[in-house]
Amino acid sequence: MIFIGLTGWGDHDSLYTELSNKKDKLMTYASHFPIVELDATYYAIQRTSTIEKWCQETPESFKFVVKAHQFMTGHSDYRDYYDSIKDVFIAFKDMLKPMQERNKLAFVLLQFPPWFDCTSKNIRYVKFATELLKPYKIAVEFRNQTWFQDEYKEETLSFLHDSELIHSICDEPNAGIGSIPFVNRVTDDIAFIRLHGRNVHGWTQQNRTSDEWREVRYLYDYNKDELAWLKRQVDILKHKTKHIYIVFNNNSGGHAAGNAKTFIDLMDIEYSGLFPKQLKLF
Q1: Helices 224-238/256-266 angle, 10° precision
Q2: How far is CA 62 from the centre of its chain?
């Protein structure tokens, strides 16, 4: 089964042209796509009541790919808020219980920062983090080229496979040490592809605030040839794994939703179990 969706549901204005109540965005989103990558959990550990609300606002078969909190991946320091890193993991796991109980949790995404390189220390941390997240299923995304340099690539993939971790296959600019190549391999019975766009200038842009950087980093519109290339990669994966999750993360210019819908048509997919689309009254 191939599941296609977007990162978040708030930034895709093209989906909500007929929506009168902005509070209904998630329900409207769930009339278009069967999955979403939940990135709000990267910025804050959400209240259990919020997770329950999101579960209620989505169809029974809907799935969430949940991004780990930034404290868990070393993007920022937990010590002003928690006594130990283990406390962060405990709070995060408790947050997910309603989603797991409703069978709406696809897996947790551990996306590590560009400075998280391939070292013994960092390999130990991946093991530590994934152990703390058990029994949840986990995907790992690296953003440092050292993990996939010739001398480490096969060892990295073997490590993920032996640890029963999902390898996050990334389409992103080939832009130096803080990026990784598209490695179309599976390490689990789930394949996971994240499409960040190919904006080399935006990916490497310096001297911007974090908000400005985010606005340009994922500014990209995949063309038909690039989506056809992606289809060929997915066709390869179909023979190697049971389920494929594909998330379009090129949100900055509002292109993700259109690209994802075009790709659904290209793959000749028609989803059942979505919410019915809202009808225009006039």
Answers
A1: 60
A2: 15
- Taking the alpha carbons at both ends of the chain, their separation in whole angstroms is 37
Beta carbons within 8 Å of 185's beta carbon, 6+ residues apart: 157, 167, 169
What single letter denotes the amino acid at residue 32? H
pLDDT digits (tens, 9 = 90+) for 22-79: 668 999 999 999 999 999 999 999 999 999 999 999 999 999 999 999 999 999 999 9
Q: How far apart are CA 253 and CA 221, in angstroms?
A: 8
**Residue 161 predicted with pLDDT over 60:** yes
pTM of the model: 0.93
Please determine, for residue 281, whether its predicted confidence score (pLDDT) is greater than 50: no
Closest CA to 251 of 4, 5, 3, 12: 12
Type of residue numbered 140:
V
Q: Measuring CA to CA, how many Å separate 259 from each of 2, 251, 262?
A: 16, 10, 5
Q: Is 46 helix (H, G, I), strand (E, B) or coil?
A: coil
Angle (CA) 82-134-156 rounded to 5° is 100
- The secondary structure of residue 135, as a DSSP letter, is T
Q: In the chain, what's the furthest Cα-to-Cα distance?
A: 63
Other CB atoms within 10 A of residue 125 CB: 17
Task: Give the integer Cα–Cα distance in Å for 24 and 133.
Answer: 31
204, 141 in Cβ contact below 8 A?
no
Write down all domains in the chain, each with its CATH number in brackets: 2-266 (3.20.20.410)
Residue 166's Cα: distance from chain center in Å? 12
Residues 6+ away with beta carbon under 8 Å from 88: 45, 69, 71, 72, 78, 82
